[in-house]
Amino acid sequence: MKKGIHPRYEIAEVRCSCGNVIKTKTTSKNLEVEICSACHPFFTGTQKMVDTAGRIERFKRRYSLEK
Predict the structure, then answer these.
(1) Which among 16, 37, 41, 53 has most CB atoms closer than 10 A?
(2) CB–CB of 8/1 below 8 Å?
């Protein structure tokens, strides 16, 4: 690597709006994010599958998957 052309790769803190702090290595000093793995619905298991107006049933009828 050439000297003086690459950014410094240092330990930084990633702060989430929920209060979670993650330490990682990056070229940025500090990062602030709105959502992280500690508060994201997919990772916490609070995500809900919503069937709006019978879309799944319509799909199954259209492709003859329901017998």
Answers:
(1) 16
(2) no
Q: 18 labelled as ligand-binding?
A: yes
pTM for the model: 0.53
Q: Please write the tens of the pLDDT for every residue from 21-67.
A: 999 999 988 889 888 888 877 767 776 666 667 777 888 888 876 55
Establish whether 16 is an annotated binding residue.
yes
Candidates 3.90.25.10, 4.10.80.400, 3.40.50.1360, 3.40.50.80; CATH matching 10-63: 4.10.80.400
